[in-house]
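Predict structure. Chain length: 288.
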Amino acid sequence: MAVCDTLVIMGGGVMGRGMARLFAKAGMRVTLVDVRDIDFVHPGVTLAHEPPGEPVPDLVIEAVFEDRDVKQSVFARIEACYGGRPVLATNTSGLPLDELGASLTYPHRFLAMHFYQPADLFPLIEVVRGARTEDSAMAVAEAAVRRAGREPIVLQRAVNGYLINRLQHSILHEAYHLLESGIATAETIDKVAKLLLGPRMCITGLLEQKDLAGLEMHAQAQRSIVPTLSHTGVPSAYLQDMVARGDVGVGSGRGFYDWHGRDGAAVQRRAAARLERLLAYLQKDEAE
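Prediction complete.
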């Protein structure tokens, strides 16, 4: 039976710290590696500037920013340090998994573990098999997820974006189109997501709800609506232009909303607290 007792996380940003908290709370020995001096303290987590020589970890998770070259340089460091002994996981979902691991010496130990942010809060973690990933590597990753009290969402074949982000970006692409076309405001789109789509998905998901409602009407609606959706096949120019202007959200003071004069950090803290309460309720309700 696969076990995972020791873990190295490469990258001490928001996502890496969330992972560190999650696995340390489960009693695993966690080393959080970052080239910077980071202000982070948590029981069971050791900070380091380099991967530790001993003990050899069961699992290494790369959690640096989304740049192919940077990620591959991390992989090279890990293989130089440990060979093919640990399982090596990347947290990416936006870069093609098999292309990302093409230069690895030990591709059979390579896979993806995609965490949804906040990494230490959500109950599901994607575990994705690469083209050459061996069963024993998948077993270690799944064991780590289960030890942390989470459920692995196992994908036996990598597709760009995996499951969560493909669904999310499908919705967002249409939302950007509606916004750019002047059909709906950001406030209206978010209100619909929060008060209509969100609550229903929490209870019956996407597909179960359609079964409950009956597929005849859904199929008829598809024939009318799907041909009119925004099937551009390219990233939203509306969003790309915003980022090019420097309108990147809370950090710049403007994104889809005007954040000037507002405490973005307080909004984020309140959202995280509400999300934690919601997830606790849903998990309790599901168990009853």
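Summary: The chain is about 45% helix and 15% strand.
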